[in-house]
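Input (structure):
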């Protein structure tokens, strides 16, 4: 075998690997779109995001995150640095979320697991006959956040009931969520037509575990507790069964 064959094959493999790494990390169902500068009628999916005359993505009601060239089609919404305008840069990845769906849950911004967002990749500029930029070619895909073990939106969660022998008048229910979950400390109480039970319910949170205690004589009132639970940058809404 020629002595150059092995080095040549090695370099060829490196070249192929480098080329494959340069391919945008977008799903096969991603939609290709030509967006012209200043054309507010051409938007990304169901959002209002378009490219303005300054060649920036802009929006009135969406959050835009510039993930840079190493962003990829991430299933976790990036909510740390979002704006209503971001420069269009070929080779960069972006995420578009609906601003009204972002809320603070357990101390951090989070996006609901039942709401979609867009991953966007800017492929290249579009030039006119005079070689001036007149728009950009993009690819985008609608995505849903990874649930990360969180229950479905509006799921009803059963807890483990413990009878307190030291205090037979108290019921205690324990609810455990996936590892890494954080429970919002603000609650909404539904009492199904009975007197307000807010003061009668006692909550204890320890990491991803919440304990709810209430007096036995209130069991017929069937208190209904709504909780928001976050894991990473996504959250869900659940109801606790008693």
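Output (sequence):
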């Amino acid at each position: 075998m020629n002595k150059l064959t092995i080095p040549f094959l090695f370099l060829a493999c490196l070249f192929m690997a480098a080329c494959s790494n340069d391919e945008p990390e977008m799903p096969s169902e991603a939609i290709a779109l030509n967006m012209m500068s200043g054309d507010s009628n051409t938007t990304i999916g169901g959002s209002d995001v378009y490219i303005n005359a300054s060649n920036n993505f802009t929006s009135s009601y969406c959050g835009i995150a510039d993930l840079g060239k190493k962003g990829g089609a991430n299933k976790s919404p990036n909510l740390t640095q979002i704006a209503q305008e971001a420069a269009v840069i070929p080779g960069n990845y972006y995420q578009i979320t609906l601003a009204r769906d972002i809320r603070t849950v357990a101390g951090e911004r989070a996006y609901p697991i039942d709401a979609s967002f867009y991953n966007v990749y800017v492929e290249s500029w579009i030039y006119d006959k005079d070689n001036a930029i007149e728009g950009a070619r993009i690819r985008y895909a609608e995505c849903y956040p990874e649930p990360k073990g969180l229950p479905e939106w509006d799921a009803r969660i059963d807890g483990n009931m413990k009878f307190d022998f030291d205090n037979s008048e108290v019921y205690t229910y324990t609810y455990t969520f996936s590892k890494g979950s954080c429970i919002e400390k603000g609650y909404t109480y539904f009492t199904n037509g009975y007197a307000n039970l807010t003061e009668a319910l006692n909550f204890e949170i320890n990491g991803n575990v919440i304990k709810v205690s209430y007096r036995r004589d209130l069991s017929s009132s069937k208190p209904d507790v709504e909780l928001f639970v976050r894991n990473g940058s996504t959250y869900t809404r659940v109801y606790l069964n008693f």
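Notes: The chain has a mean pLDDT of 85. Helices lie at 5-22.
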